[in-house]
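Our working data are protein records whose layout never changes between entries. Getting from the letters to the tokens is the skill we practise here. To make this concrete, we reproduce a full record directly below:
***
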Amino acid sequence: MNKTAVITGAGSGVGRAVALKLAQQGWRVAIVGRRAEMLRETIRLAGPHGSRLMEHACDIGDPKAVAAMGQRLLAELGEVEVLVNSAGTNAPKRALEVLSLADYHAMIATNLNGAYYCVQTFLPHMRARKSGTIVNIVSDAGKQASMKSGPAYVMSKFGLAGLTQSINAEERGHGIRACAIFPGDIDTPLLDRRPEPPDAAARARMMRADDVAECVMLCLNLPQNVIVEEMLVRPR
């Protein structure tokens, strides 16, 4: 396998945890996120493996920015074997009664459109060489709506689940597989955007970003003829 990967949302949370695990295992990894300083922190945390990480600040909700990012990364990496769509956002005022149009569009742009833009950027190259794995970090909100998540987030995650299914329906004959991971509560910075952020005791009962990163590694390390199409994981 060509051990090259692109990870969005790699400046924190699950995206960062996946990037660190891949770098430790000898992968060359392009880490993508909106804030360059957060990406540089990911590289710092990689320690001696940081030289395997390359940062690219990009707003994935902007299709032109994604296209430019893709051109640069393909030139630098040569090929991209793995794409992990981990970028995601929410808003404190997320219920239907208070959800603003701006916050609605921001969530759809990042959580769903951004993943689609990235897929369409790297998929043709995977298709041409008949090899590639796409992992979408969804959420259990992509299985069942809840007041906790809010409608815009739920809609974006249901859409991301549909994108994963569509990739498998159309591309498995081209050697490409897509995996959707549906985590429950994870102790990540996204919790700070809840209307009432959970306290330390609640966070202690949640999964860690590393736990979900292990799920990603399972999907990647299975034989190429095997697809984990969906994985629902929650705290014990």
In short: The first strand starts at residue 4 and ends at 8. The chain has a mean pLDDT of 96.
